C-alpha cells in the first residue's frame, strides 16, 4: 500500500558540521544577508577569534554543499552561549534554525552545560517568537557589556 503524501513539503536535508577555512566568504555573506553584521564587529575578526576557542562548536549548516545556516556556540564552564544564529533568507521557516539549535543544545548538554544564554534585541519580536517556540524564555536580568578590544 502506498503511504499517504505528507501534508506539507518535507524540510530540506541540512548537513551540520564544524566551520572549515573555505567557508569564510559564504559565512560572512550569510551574516550580512541576515543583518547580523554590526559596524563595531568585524565578522572576519569574530571568526578568527572563534577559531581559537572551541572551533568544533562553530556550526555550519549546508544544503547540497552550500552554506545555508550558522550558529557560533560556546561553553564557558558555567553557561552555553549562541551567537550568529543565521539561516539564509531564502531558506527560512523550513525548520533549519530549529535543527541547528537542537544540535547546539545536544553538543552543550554532552559537555555538561546546564543552561544556554543568548541575547536578542528587544525590538526583534520575530526572533524572540522563534526562540519562544524552542522553549526559551526571558531571564530577569539586564545584559551589560564592556568592550575590551575595539575591532575598528
Ligand atoms: C531566527 C532564524 C534563525 C530562524 O530560523 P528558521 O529556520 O527560519 O526558523 P524555523 O523554521 O526553524 O522556525 C522554528 C519555529 O519558529 C517559528 N518562527 C521562525 N521565525 C519566526 C518569526 N520571524 N516570527 C515568528 N515565528 C517564527 C517558525 O514558524 C517555527 O514555528 P513552529 O514550531 O510553529 O513550526 C532566522 O529567521 C534568521 O536567520 N533570522 C535572521 C538572523 C537573526 O536574526 N538571527 C538571530 C540573532 S539573535
From TrEMBL:
Tell me the ranges covered by the N-acetyltransferase domain, including all copies: 14-152
Q: Which domain of life is it from?
A: Bacteria
Top EC class per UniProt? transferase
One GO molecular function term of this record is:
acyltransferase activity, transferring groups other than amino-acyl groups
Keyword annotations for this protein, in alphabetical order, are: Acyltransferase, Transferase
The answer on whether this UniProt entry bears the keyword Transferase reads: yes
Q: Which Gene3D superfamilies match?
A: 3.40.630.30
The protein's matches in PANTHER family, at most eight in alphabetical order, are given as: AMINOALKYLPHOSPHONATE N-ACETYLTRANSFERASE-RELATED, AMINOALKYLPHOSPHONATE N-ACETYLTRANSFERASE-RELATED-RELATED
The protein's name in its UniProt record: GNAT family acetyltransferase
Q: Which organism is it from?
A: Variovorax terrae
Source organism lineage?
Bacteria, Pseudomonadati, Pseudomonadota, Betaproteobacteria, Burkholderiales
